[in-house]
Amino acid sequence: MARFDQLENDGNSGSLQERVFLQIQDDILNGKYKPGDSLVESRLSQELGVSRTPVREALKQLELQGLVKSTPNKGTVVTGITTQDIYDIYTIRMKIEGLAARWAAEKITQEELAELKEAVELEEFYTMKNDVGQLYKFDNNFHYIIFKASKSRPLMNTLSTFHHYLQRARNTSFSTPGRARKALKEHQAILQAIMDRDSERAEKLTEKHIRNAMNNLLKNK
Fold first, then answer.
1. Taking the chain, what is the end-to-end CA distance rounded to the nearest angstrom?
2. The pTM is what?
3. What is the pLDDT of residues 6-32, one digit of tens each?
4. Does one domain contain both 55 and 91?
């Protein structure tokens, strides 16, 4: 875990609180802290090399996100991402990622289209090599380029947050036998629809892709 002693000494409290929050959030999302684990302010402040104030503020922010729950006289306990959370997020993703693909098919630039093609080509290369780490990277790139090509900042911010929340679950999903090859074929079909400027087909294929990813993840959870 990173230590933020220098930031606190510099008096940059806004930046310090944000970094402490992001560090603890990542540790929850990546599974370092699991549902049911207690988060103790004094222990976290010692590990991070900061006073208890930014830790306390970070825990309040995490509670607003639903990642932890504070109970009087019992402290703060990790709730994490539940199965219901995953189902809800993927259901919402189906709708708004479908919309992102529709808008991308209508608004994507030639430069973004070249980036999207390259992401799919690299995904195919690493699928053949069965390199899950690189696959995860280029899967993220594929979705990010579509978000960017939608030309909608609110939509992009929302979807980026969802992807961050699901990072560990999605990595696990890629490790499921056969899923990477299926995801590649689905991405290739979405790419073709966007290249054809067929917004309706791009939207439907993306919704199907997200649904398949959700079903695979929940089946193997």
1. 27
2. 0.76
3. 444 444 445 888 889 989 988 888 788
4. no
